[in-house]
Amino acid sequence: MSTETVLYIILAGVVALVLALFQYKYKAKGASTSNALFAFLRFITLFSVLLLLINPKFEQVKYDVVKPNLVVAVDNSSSIKHLKQDVKAQEFVNSISNNAELNNKFNIELFSFGNTLNSNDSLSFNQNQTNLDKVFKQLAQVYKNSIAPTIVVSDGNQTIGSDYQFSAKKYNQPIYPIILGDTVVYSDLQISKLNVNKYAYLKNKFPVEAIVIYNGDQAISSKFVVTKGNTTVFSKVITLDKSKNSEVLNFNLSANSVGVQDYKAQVIPLSTEKNITNNYKNFAVEVIDQKSKVAIVSTVLHPDLGALKKSIESNEQREVVFLNPNKILNQLNDFQLVILYQPNNSFKFLFTELEKQNKNKWVISGPKTDWLFLNKIQADYNLEVTSQTEDYQPNLNTNYSAFIIEDLDFNNFPPLKSTFGEADFNLPFETILYKTVSGIQTKQPLLTTLEINGRREAILFGEDLWKWRAQSYLNEDSFLKFDNFIGKLVQYLASNKRKNRLNIDYNSFYNGSDNIVISAQFFNKNYEFDDSASLSIVVKNNQSLETTTRPLILKGNNYQVNLNGLASGSYSFTVKSSSENISVSGNFKIIEYNVEQQFLNADVTKLQQVATNSNGNAFFINNYKALANDLLNDKRYQPIQKSNKSVVPLIDWYYLLFIIVLSLALEWFIRKYKGLI
Questions:
Q1: What is the CA radius of gyration of the chain?
Q2: Residues 67-102: pLDDT tens digits?
Q3: Cross-strand bridge partners of residue 57
Q4: By C-alpha distance, which of 519, 498, 506, 491 is closest to 587?
Q5: What CA–CA distance (Å, rounded) separates 533 from 525?
């Protein structure tokens, strides 16, 4: 409380006393016991009212005892059930949750994980992926400012993500792995890796690489076989022993028919093997009859060119060729799309030829673009010519109707640099990304597309597209989402299919452990995105003829349905609107493969290493009771007393109002009783 406030309180006391004495001593003409009591009550009333007007503030300190957190993260993947450890895992969780001493010392937090980390409601052990790397990264964000020893109940076998040993080091919390699984080493022959391209071209051969690993002491001989249906397309005898325990097989297969082609790779199991699930892998290749070629034409060197090539060629159906404006003229017919990067006057003949052939193109402009030339060479749009540049951030248009766009968190992407000025269009266009300047969203296009006379064109008003690809990697630990965004734009520009009100996005085939997600966008008659549509999908198994109907759920700027849980096989499906007679059909295959069933043992070495590096301790599931004693006796985990200081104004102290009412009431009743009123 400040000195000034104290002086005000003293002054308020003096004023209240003077007024009370003036009324009941000076004005009452005499002293009596009753007058002294009335003066006291009036003083209390006046002083309390003046205190409320001054409203002094008091510091209030509260002390709380905070128990350390005990984090229990349980592997909920199907490998736990495959290794017959699900019952033991559940018993352990129940034991920890019901341990009175641990609950008295710790605040126990339960989580389960597969591909993602979730608050633990129940354990089903049916997740089709394990990502321990993501578990430690997400826990590090939650418990970065608190004590949180962490129990990880797992077999340590990770199927997706980076090596979790590195993220566990950055977690900065003691880790106590509870190791699930058999530690006895059995003789085992398995296909460890099988690498194959997703696409192949008709009448060509495509490469396949298989890595066969043997765990055992005796020399063995087996046979590696690849079949397509009932036909063997490749086979080789392999001989392995303790010193030579692996073999890499490289061979080529022929692509003789268009479409998704299924294959099965198998190494004949040993008679003593315990796990034969990892002896085979199913794989598929989509055979296409031609490759799309994209030309990037530029007279400047810029990182955008490499980023575009990487993104476009991430889909093996496409090939990118770099050319200058003069060399492309004689081979223009070889390309389905031409990207014009920061055009200038040297592009004059190329623009003329593109216009003559009514060919699709994508113009990318920037500070090096000659807008005097570009405004003159075409009549579809023009930009105000200035000598200034500006940084523009993207803002996604959720009503874009040409194809499905996933929001990549565009609002937080780095800005693109471009010439300052407003663009005017002389024909209808659709904006994918709007410009945001200094945090203010505008209706000026940053990336837009247009269609006229069967020709499609896109215009990007900015350079430094490579920064977006880098930011996408930082956000997702992968270039996949950004490359898919560029791939969809290129696919749209390289095609001349008419625009539909219902668009769908899916893959031709999925591995059994993949997330099977089908996305759709629905537009009204004005081609504005309709977020109130009722869409459903009917999925039919082409072998059993069994059908499944599920609704599509609105998620961002598209509708999605997750078809995880479908058995392997060939499927056809139809997405339709319940309010209008609009539907789209397609086909996909699910390749039989469960990555969680490829393991025979727990990864004991890695889990023990994680415990050692984090100053924790590893325990086998059969000895988990020793963990409780270890945690209870560890002096690092003690309750912390925390103080919480808050400033409370007197006006919030409702007891003062009660005192004012009480003093006034007593004064009135006493005066009434004595007949003074």
A1: 37
A2: 899 999 999 988 888 888 889 999 999 999 899 999
A3: 649
A4: 506
A5: 13
